[in-house]
Design brief:
Strand content: 35-45%
Number of strands: 31
Structural class: alpha+beta
Number of helices: 7
Radius of gyration: 24 Å
Shape: globular
Helix content: 10-25%
Strand order of the largest sheet: 3-2-1-4-5-6-7-8
Largest sheet: 8 strands, mixed
Length: 527
């Protein structure tokens, strides 16, 4: 398509340049039009971002960095003709002055405002940061996408997340695909102030983080830990009602934390694969625990020069395999088990992508990999991608325009996919207010011949919110279940209680779930 990107000279940002180059990469014909208007950001924002970069050691260039338009779009055609016509015009200047026309015209909105300042005010007002794309001529914009807003909030990090996902969203609107990413919801409007309290907010955030650090030194602080149970004939009923579950805590020695549990019952014994994170090295490794051994120590089985976590172990073709998260290497890698459960060998790189928590599912069409990706910048928790391959070794191909969903609450995988009664369910990490703040169960359909869809059906979260702040992994092998939680329990807090609660917000949610079940059963019958 022929696309004109309209840039306001006073408000030109780094993410505008990245957007233009993304569109070129997507095989569009792009031209830049520059005018002299555009909404300015709060005067103290640059000072606040510089303060945060210094305090938190942030080295990457901010996507809100101002750019000189005459130097930042080298190799991209410039146009000064307001009468030139395009297929699509992207108004990044706040739509404040004349510009070329197009069959379709869009501008980005941040919490309902045609400027990143909307996201700034949402942060200060304690709201979710939400992004959307509005067609020119619309009087209002009611829906948008929630991006990761971890609290206490580093303003620059959250704004970078918003701008990175905005690039994805605008790129989506420049395709012929009529279906937009899953995750759209009502925008939370925020209060607007002529003098936003940026510096006090940044100082308060720093104080909270320092208090956390002091708490860590004083009593070990909050940390990840694993709980497990043999559920017998009482496994978690994903499509059932309210339930209370109790798990036994896996002890650690205080020199490391354990997280991302993947249980396996094999050879008459209960094995638990997990991430082991020694504080001394500051880098995750993959370990296994024999839960039938009274000592129950974590034994390292896979280490690398980069961080490893989320050891998604599975059986296929008569042998054991593992796909651990190795996003820091910008690859999804496959390991082959040579001697269960201790000896593993690198097998292949499946996809060259920065993926978080890649989760495999197999059906009659082949293999699916579901993960979130911070490819291009931004959060690793709110950009859902789905790939498919006819065999485990590939070739792996994206299923349509990526991402398929933008939602900090239900994008990032939290464990194995379950098939119950012909329907598919996936646990997801709720990272909308805190990384790993809880688990949201979604019923979903794989994008076979139709767009990806999913509906929230339940939550799984700690009952004792005073001791535990969140959870982000659930897995089971037969009736052997394992979860992880984040918090600081007392020494005798071995049993953990969770409450999965069905979310019946309205009849429309029930109707969507029923439609998804029918859609999935139809798809399963056709392959």
């Amino acid at each position: 398509m022929r696309i004109c990107v309209v840039i306001g000279r006073p408000c030109a940002r780094e993410w505008h340049s990245l957007l233009a180059r993304r569109l070129i990469h997507d095989q569009h014909e792009v031209a830049i039009f520059v005018n002299e208007g555009g909404p300015a950001l709060p005067s103290l924002l640059a000072t606040t971002l510089a303060f945060e970069r210094l305090v938190y050691g942030i080295s990457a260039k901010s996507l809100l960095t101002g750019i000189l338009v005459d130097n930042s779009f080298e190799g991209i055609r410039r146009t000064d003709d307001v009468n030139e016509s395009f297929d699509i015009v992207l108004r990044l200047d706040g739509d404040v002055s004349s510009a070329p026309g197009g069959a379709r015209s869009f501008h980005p909105v941040f919490n309902g405002i045609q400027s990143e300042v909307g996201a700034v005010h949402a942060i200060l007002d304690g709201h979710d940061v939400m992004i959307g794309v509005q067609s020119s001529g619309e009087s209002s914009h009611a829906n948008g996408y929630s991006i990761e807003t971890e609290l206490p909030t580093i303003i620059g990090k959250t704004l970078d997340n918003a701008c990175a996902r905005m690039i994805d969203l605008l790129a989506w609107h420049c395709t012929s695909n009529r279906s937009l990413p899953v995750g759209s919801k009502s925008i939370e409007l925020c209060r607007m102030s002529n003098s936003p309290l940026l510096i006090p907010h940044a100082a308060a955030t720093l104080t909270k983080r320092l208090l956390r650090r002091l708490d860590m030194f004083a009593r070990g602080g909050d940390r990840w830990m694993i709980g497990w149970r043999h559920a017998g004939n009482r496994p978690l009923e994903i499509d059932g009602g309210r339930a209370s579950l109790s798990y036994r805590r896996v002890r650690d020695d205080g020199q490391r934390f354990l997280a991302d549990p993947f249980p396996v019952f094999a050879g008459g014994r209960s094995w638990l694969f997990c991430e082991e994170y020694p504080y001394a090295t500051g880098r995750g490794i993959i370990s296994v625990i024999d839960l039938d051994d009274p000592a129950g120590v974590a034994r390292p089985i896979i280490e690398a020069s980069h961080h490893l976590s989320y050891p998604m172990v599975f059986a296929d073709g008569g042998r054991w395999w593992m796909i651990p998260e190795s996003g820091a290497s910008n690859r999804i890698v496959l390991y082959r088990c040579e001697e269960f459960p201790l000896k593993w060998t690198y097998e292949a790189t499946l996809i060259d992508v920065a993926a978080s928590d890649p989760t495999l599912y197999r059906d009659q069409t082949g293999y699916w990999l579901i993960f979130t990706s911070c490819e291009g910048a931004g959060s690793p928790s709110d950009r859902l991608c789905v790939y498919h391959a006819p065999t485990l070794h590939g070739p792996w191909r994206p299923c349509g325009q990526q991402p398929l969903a933008i939602d900090a609450r239900t994008s990032r995988p939290a464990g194995h996919i379950l098939s119950v009664g012909g329907a598919l369910y996936r646990p997801t990490q709720d990272c909308s207010r805190l990384y790993g703040g809880g688990i949201v169960w979604c019923q979903f359909s794989l994008p076979l011949e139709r767009p990806f869809q999913q509906v929230e059906i339940a939550t799984l979260s700690p009952r004792d919110a005073r001791s535990f702040r969140g959870a982000h992994t659930y897995n089971r092998s037969g009736s052997f279940e394992a979860i992880d939680v984040y918090g600081a329990p007392s020494d005798d807090a071995i049993d953990l209680t969770f409450l999965p609660v069905a979310k019946v917000k309205s009849n429309s949610v029930c109707d969507q779930a029923s439609a998804l079940r029918a859609s999935q059963e139809s798809a399963n019958a056709s392959v």
